[in-house]
Each structure stands twice: as C-alpha cells, then as structure tokens.
User: Which sequence fits this backbone?
C-alpha cells in the first residue's frame, strides 16, 4: 500500500488534474490525500475525491492564504469537513518564513482550523516554517494529532511531536544532498512514526529537483529512506503506510 499523504494536484501549475491522478495510479500509488489550501481548492479536493475511489481530501486554509479569510470561509471549511472522504483538516499551520507581518491573523485562522478538527474529530496536516514553537504550543493546547508535513525541525523536536502522537511527514527534501538535518531525523525516527508525501507539484525528489512533481515520484523518497535506515524499500512502504492508516480513515 503506497500513500501520498500530501499533495496539491489542484495547483494552477497543472493543466490537467485527471492526467496527474492517472500518472500517480499508474506509478503504483494506491491512495492520495489532496490537500486544500483555501476554500476553493478544498471544495475542489472534495469534488475530486468523489470521482476517484483512490483520492481523499484534506480541507483547510493554509498560512499563505489567511489574509482574506472571513468568518464565512471558516464556516465553509467546517461544512466541507463533514464530507465522507475528508480525512483531515489541512493544509493548515504557521509560516513566519513567508511573512511575519500577519502573525496574528495566521494564529487566529490556525486556531479556527484546530477547533474544527477537534469538533469533527479529525486529524490535522500541519505546515510549520520558522514557527515550530508556536505550532507546538497550539497543537498542545488543542490536543489534536496528525502529520507534521514537510518536517524541517530538529531530532529533539521531532521526538516531542511523536510523543503527542504526530507522524513526521517526509518528502523529496530527504533526497537533497544538503538536507543533513532531515536525513538525521529519518535515521533517528522509527518508520512507525513517519508518513510519506510528495507535496506535488513542489519539492520533486532527486534526480528531478526543480521539475514539476507527481505522487508517482514517491518511490525515489522511499529509496532514499531505505538507504538511510538500511532496510528494504518494502519495509519503508509497509510500515509508513500502516502508520498512516492507523491515524487516518483511508
Ligand atoms: Ni503543501
């Protein structure tokens, strides 16, 4: 069972989402969680999940899209979250690298999203960039669990999140030569606490770095993790998938 837990196949970087899904399935991916990042993309993710049995949706408003968020948008996300194939609230979180100027708005929308996750009893898929402590504090306050997508923190912080029941989301960055910290995190983290993701169309693994990504490229991420941990690719695939299906209703 091969699962891409985080991709944005509704990104404007793609001309044809159906083509991307077909390529992913042909490449051996069994299940795909398409993450929304605002109301429109969350809505479309839900619609796609109804068309493909292999596709699931995460709905939410991400930190890069909080500025224009209204109370009505928050309400719409909550409505969408009740769809049968919505398996998480995501992509949500904090990004102080992108901008610190709207820190308050980012925090307020993130809290709204966490409240929905709590009320709907859904896990979360969290983006955190240069905001790891604030992220940790809010996830603790709302007592939710899920995936820390595209994890970029330290080994010590990863351990703290794992204690809270989070999975460490690992994607194409792990194949980059300079990703020493992440490679170390992977070495030090049990496969039972890792989830795989491509973040398509972004972050293509080597040897495709810089090109448009597709979930079928998960196999390059698996190959690297297997090398780092000295286990078979099958073991990486099986244990990370089990980690995901034990938390997400896929
Ligand atoms: Ni993402």
Assistant:
């Amino acid at each position: 069972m091969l699962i891409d837990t985080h991709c944005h196949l509704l990104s404007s970087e793609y001309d044809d989402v159906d083509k991307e899904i077909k390529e992913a399935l042909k490449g051996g991916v069994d299940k795909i969680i398409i993450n929304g990042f605002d109301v429109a993309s969350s809505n479309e993710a839900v619609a796609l999940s109804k068309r493909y049995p292999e596709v699931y949706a995460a709905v939410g408003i991400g930190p890069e899209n909080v500025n224009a968020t209204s109370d009505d948008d928050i309400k719409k996300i909550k409505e969408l979250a009740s769809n049968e194939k919505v398996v998480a609230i995501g992509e949500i979180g904090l990004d102080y690298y992108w901008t610190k100027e709207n820190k308050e708005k980012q925090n307020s929308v993130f809290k709204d999203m966490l409240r929905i996750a709590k009320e709907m009893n859904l896990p979360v898929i969290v983006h955190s960039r240069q905001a790891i402590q604030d992220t940790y504090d809010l996830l603790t306050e709302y007592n939710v669990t899920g995936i820390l997508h595209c994890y970029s923190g330290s080994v010590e912080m990863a351990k703290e999140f794992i204690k809270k029941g989070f999975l460490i989301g690992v994607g194409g960055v792990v194949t980059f030569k300079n990703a020493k910290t992440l490679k170390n995190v992977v070495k030090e983290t049990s496969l039972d606490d890792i989830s795989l993701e491509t973040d398509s169309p972004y972050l293509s693994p080597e040897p495709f770095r810089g090109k448009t990504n597709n979930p079928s490229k998960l196999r390059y991420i698996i190959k690297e993790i297997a090398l780092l941990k000295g286990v078979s690719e099958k073991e990486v695939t099986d244990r990370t998938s089990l980690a995901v299906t034990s938390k997400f209703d896929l």
User: Anything to note?
Assistant: Residues 6, 8, 35, 91, 127, 199 surround nickel (II) ion (CB under 6 Å). The longest strand covers residues 86-95. The CA atoms of residues 67 and 102 lie 8 Å apart.
